Amino acid sequence: MVVQTLRRLFTVDEYHRMAQAGILSEDDGVELIEGEIVRMSPIGSRHARCVRLLNRIFSKGVGDRAIVDVQNPIRLGERSEPQPDVALLKPRPDFYAGVHPGPDDVLLLVEVTEHSAAYDREVKVPLYARSGIPEVWLVDLEEEVVEVYQAPSPQGYQRVARFGRGDRLAPQAFPDLVLMVDEIL
Question: Is the pLDDT of residue 5 over 80?
């Protein structure tokens, strides 16, 4: 006998109303992915260190050419609002007051993973591709690699490259900002 469960998917607006009503709080550590409220992995010290390093490197490297956003929501349509670890956003004088950035505002998203690489690789990266995010970096602290995803399409990213210790990489939006993988890890 096959048991079928009915699932109730939420919209971004409903998700926000749950927060306004006190059902969800900032301390809950959740994000909305394809209509489902998903608990994010706890942030370990290596993960936090990497995010801080990227924040520092990007802030110095891009200056006023982009907004460096850390662990804040990106609205990807009606049913997804993930919170990537780092985002480089197109500059806006209001710093996105009153609205979360969307796919057209994103230059680069970075997900740092210590124990959830499979989830990020199989769920979040394809979501970013379908949404048209031009470039995603997956910093895998366990494998000590940075995976770079470019050229989004509905079927996924058309270009994928892996960089390990000793390699250099740069965001496609800022080719002058060259980073060593070792300094990220």
Answer: no
Q: Which of 1-5, 64-68, 107-111, 179-183 has the weakest average pLDDT?
A: 1-5
List the 145-153 sheet strands across, edge first. Answer: 67-70, 86-89, 106-113, 135-140, 145-153, 156-164
d(CA 102, CA 85): 15
Distant-in-sequence, close-in-space partners of 149: CB < 8 Å, separation ≥ 6: 125, 128, 129, 135, 136, 137, 138, 157, 159, 160
DSSP codes of every residue in the chain:
-----------HHHHHHHHHTTSS-GGG-EEEETTEEEEPPP--HHHHHHHHHHHHHHHHHHGGGSEEEES-----SSS-B---SEEEE---TTTTTTS---GGGEEEEEEEESS-HHHIIIIIHHHHHHHT-SEEEEEETTTTEEEEEEEEETTEEEEEEEEETT-EE--TT-TT--EEHHHH-
pLDDT at 41 over 90: no
Provide the terminal-to-terminal Cα distance of the chain, rounded to the nearest Å: 49
pLDDT digits (tens, 9 = 90+) for 43-76: 889 999 999 999 999 999 999 999 999 999 999 9
